[in-house]
Amino acid sequence: MARCAGRGGPHEFAGDDIPHMSIGPRTTISGLVDAYAATGYNGRQLGLAAKLYARMIEEGATICLTVAGAMTPVGFGGIFKSLIERGFVDWIVATGANVYHEDHFAWGLPVKQGHAGADDSVLYEKEIVRIRDVYIKFYETLEAEDQIVQRAFRDELHGEPFTSAKFCNVLGRVAHERAPHPERSFVASAYRHDVPVYVSTLKDSSLALNLAVHRLRGKTYSLDFVREVLEQGAIVHAAERSGIVELGGGVPKNTAQQTGPLLDQILRRGHGGQDYIIQITDARPDTGGLSGATLQEGKSWGKVRDAREGLVTVYADSTVAFPILALYAMSNQKRRRPKRLYRRLGSLYEGLKADYFGKPDRFYDTLDDAYRPRGGGPRRA
Is 203 a catalytic residue? Predict the structure, then answer.
């Protein structure tokens, strides 16, 4: 279903007929997606992506949502929240910006539509911060949010190792318990449903900047990034089927995909990578950057199991394509019981550890040999 070529293979004139598209006032989201899937170009890819997401849900896959850029300032956290509550997202990797700006909505801090062509020198004088065509107030929003984050971590996490999932769990708990509008936060919803939210670039965001005031007072914060990598690998290792829905690229995309090389190349579990990946991106593949890298390329790294099945890339703006994909899934798939991965991270970690030490890799006989190159042994699936 997720293949780009029609029936009969890419070099045969045997694909489905392209219909003369017909939509009308009674067309449903399912009808629209079916129409997309029957066409061509990125409309076809979007239709295939929506159907693949529904298949991932139906087949019980453990699903990761990766979110690059800043999707929450335009309100998309509400879609993430709806998917979490239906059991359609099991863990998340996001930029720090997406977590930080989502919290504005829970606390009722102002975020407004603005103008992309404004004079930013004038906006600066008026204490208005711009994200493309979204306006945020410097004091009423950003500084107010900074105070919230600083209070949240004044007595939390210092002096002990923690992961960014733990960090976001604290932030979600604070929003759930104290914010006037916790229903407007996907981070609060993730807290309630035990969905781990990782921020791989924590220090590259206002979340980490707000810890500076406590660090200057002698409080230390120790992000255990290696534990974080192993937790993510353990989630994939324990899953019967595993998939990713990627909004944009960047570090979130790579963080989720590198679970395959961790399990295969480093821990030598012969895992094979993800069963399915959907990518919505506007990045070009020919520049060599990860954001535009094709999903098929990931097969050579062991990031995906099959370079021909279960992979769909949509070259489009995520703010346009993602709501269609999400609405199709919510309209056609029954709610799933939450996997509650956050509360299970400890046992998943121990399961991966036991497997690593309990099943020695066939390429070495002793632990010391683990540090030697594999040489010319056969590649794993």
Answer: no
